[in-house]
Amino acid sequence: MKTPGNDVWTVAVADYEEKLVRTRAYQHSLSGSTLPPGEPLLEISDLSLRFGGVKALTDVNLTVETGTIHSIIGPNGAGKSSLLNCVSGLYKATAGQILLQTSGTKDLAKLPPHKVARLGVARSFQNIELFDQLSVLDNIMLGRHIHIKKDPFMAMFWFGPAKRQEIRQRELVEEVIHLLKLQQYRNQPVGALAYGIQKRVELGRALAMQPSLLLLDEPMAGMNVEEKEDMARYILDIHELAGLTVVLIEHDMSVVMDISNRVTVLDFGKVIGDGTPEEVMANPKVIEAYLGAGE
Ligand SMILES: Nc1ncnc2c1ncn2[C@@H]1O[C@H](COP(=O)(O)OP(=O)(O)O)[C@@H](O)[C@H]1O
Ligand SMILES: [Mg+2]
Question: Quick check: CB of 78 below 6 Å from ligand 1?
């Protein structure tokens, strides 16, 4: 991607940023899905995954509805990350299907990660995966890559459609920066920032993809109580303001109970509970799995 000098950006974006601060009126929808709330968005059926003798997932069935925060919980090693990795194309399921309704009949279980991303599935990782040397802005801008139309001829010049496209990209990124209150860090290298802020940048990069579905693998791991509350607030904001559907893996039960519409419980690679937070907490199998794991 061709990046013009800072002065050009400053002029192109300053007015827009000021308007955002005044109105909080976002022009660009951060959600890539137009399905009505409640419609099934992601349908996982009979998904299994094996690593040699280890059965990481066995016959997992799971439906994520549009417009929900759907949490996946379970003891360590239960298969939570493996499940997200199957959805995002990093792991190839041994059996089963993963259908994303916004992508017609394509089975995500058969696609490589870059194709899954293009279909509108964004994710954050359990460990931070950012470019330390790059600024907050540049890291978030990378999330726009899948949407930037590449035309080598146009890219040689900074005018016309190329200019309009770049300004649109920057406006959207400004909205993400604004929504996640990252303005003051915009030009700082990510590597120098506090852990909690880095996690927020990672969230921003995923959001900048305008995903249909956002997968978050323990976005609050390693955070102190205050940072966790902040992150929970941002996830709720994304959900409410942008209408995004979120699949969240989280250990902290109080957070899960607070912000989830629906919870699925995994244990030894199998679904042992599914329902509202209240239903799941009252499920004897779930209580046993948690007590058994000493949590
Ligand atoms: N890349 C891998 N290679 C081999 N085994 C793996 C791999 N990823 C996960 N596993 C195994 O799959 C099981 C589930 O792991 P994981 O999905 O990371 O659990 P969780 O995220 O719930 O803690 C574990 O037994 C783990 O050791
Ligand atoms: Mg994990």
Answer: yes
